[in-house]
Backbone:
């Protein structure tokens, strides 16, 4: 198969984890007889510095033409001036909106070898295998906003959802739940927020068409607690943009580290293969505290490549091979510092990538 995978390395540890992702996809291409191209495009802080925009038009155009997009991470203290006209994070939002990627899948799978790497008790995390579906192109991220005025007296953001925006993401999550265990939890804050009351009404109506599913509506503050108390009870969780952002950073600690959680963002746009054009990225950020030290965990990025193969390229065997290679390397006791425990061998970002690559060739 020929495929173009547009790469947006970004800032901080973004380029470090992108390098390992490309390393793994290159081995997949070599071992399975594919031809993948990995054109790189500027985005984020580096794009502000070099091109003057967090998402240059040419980068967005290239992503639209690609079969899939891989993104590292963007942002950092250099671009944190609150008065700046553009921010690296704007680039991500513009990319998600520009590709109409309304459904963000964030699977939380706890690798058996990492059960003790979590700060949560082993018995609690052992059963975890859930997917958060985060609405990605609406809500408070995109509603009307007013920056603070010169007196710094007030500012606002608006959590705005339309019924069709809620309906399509709930439908997406319900279809996924149907293909898994049949359990779906819809998260909102319907006891306080008008947009959440609409969310719950629309979700309830949509889910009437999925009578076979076991559906629960959970308030977001309670969900934050349940995810720590008994995460094993959940399978598919669907929520708004902001709630999904927060709950998945929390859920990453069930898996042991932010450095373990991949993501896929999908919409209705198709690629040249007739499959969904997706954006694949680790859920973590640019980690300025460890950038440039070759200590970032590349596995979230590498596992995002498995999702890329499966969802945008239709390469199930290759996706499974990547996941199995990660399992094998972890089973050998190799760890990056964020998931290290006594008795394990600590390696750099690049060596972790090399070991996964070697496991793929074995
Ligand atoms: P972060 O995710 O970058 O880091 C949070 C903590 O997790 C840090 O201690 C970091 O060292 C650790 N961590 C993250 N990824 C890791 C990895 N792969 N391996 C090992 N440790 C890892 O969040 P933050 O510090 O709040 O944000 C830093 C910058 O990243 C900000 O500018 C933020 O806006 C941006 N950000 C970008 C994205 C993205 O590009 N998708 C996502 C989140 C945050
Ligand atoms: C994420 C990030 C982004 C988000 C930021 C950097 C815009 O935290 O992808 O989880 O909030 O969506
Ligand atoms: Mn986030």
Residues:
């Amino acid at each position: 198969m020929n495929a173009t995978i547009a790469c947006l390395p970004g800032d901080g540890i973004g380029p470090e984890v992108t390098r390992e992702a490309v390393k793994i996809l290159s081995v997949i291409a070599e071992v399975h007889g594919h031809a993948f191209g990995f054109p790189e495009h500027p985005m984020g802080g580096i794009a502000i510095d070099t091109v003057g925009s967090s998402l240059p038009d040419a980068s967005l155009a290239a992503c639209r033409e690609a079969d899939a997009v891989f993104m590292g991470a963007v942002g950092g203290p250099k671009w944190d001036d609150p008065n700046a006209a553009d921010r690296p994070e704007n680039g991500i939002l513009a990319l998600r909106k520009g590709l109409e990627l309304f459904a963000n899948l964030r699977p939380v799978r706890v690798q058996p070898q990492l059960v003790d790497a979590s700060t949560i008790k082993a018995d609690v995390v052992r059963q975890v295998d859930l997917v958060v579906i985060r609405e990605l192109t609406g809500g408070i991220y995109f509603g009307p906003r007013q920056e603070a005025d010169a007196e710094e007296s007030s500012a606002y953001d608006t959590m705005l959802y339309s019924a069709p925006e809620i309906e399509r993401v709930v439908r997406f999550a319900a279809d996924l739940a149907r293909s898994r265990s049949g359990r779906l939890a819809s998260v909102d804050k319907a006891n306080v927020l008008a947009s959440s009351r609409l969310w719950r009404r629309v979700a309830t109506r949509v889910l009437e068409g999925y009578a076979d599913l076991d559906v629960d509506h959970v308030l977001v503050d309670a969900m934050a607690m349940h995810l720590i108390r008994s995460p094993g009870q959940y399978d598919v969780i669907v929520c708004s943009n902001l709630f999904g952002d927060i709950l998945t950073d929390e859920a990453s600690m069930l898996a042991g580290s932010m450095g373990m959680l991949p993501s896929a963002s999908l919409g209705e746009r198709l690629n040249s293969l007739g499959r969904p054009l997706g954006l694949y990225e680790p859920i973590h950020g640019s980690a300025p505290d460890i950038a440039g030290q070759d200590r970032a965990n590349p596995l979230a990025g590498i596992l995002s490549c498995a999702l890329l193969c499966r969802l945008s390229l239709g390469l199930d065997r290759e996706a499974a091979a990547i996941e199995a290679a990660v399992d094998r390397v972890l089973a050998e006791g190799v760890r990056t510092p964020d998931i290290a425990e006594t008795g394990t061998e600590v390696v750099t970002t690049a060596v972790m990538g090399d070991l996964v690559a070697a496991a793929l060739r074995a």
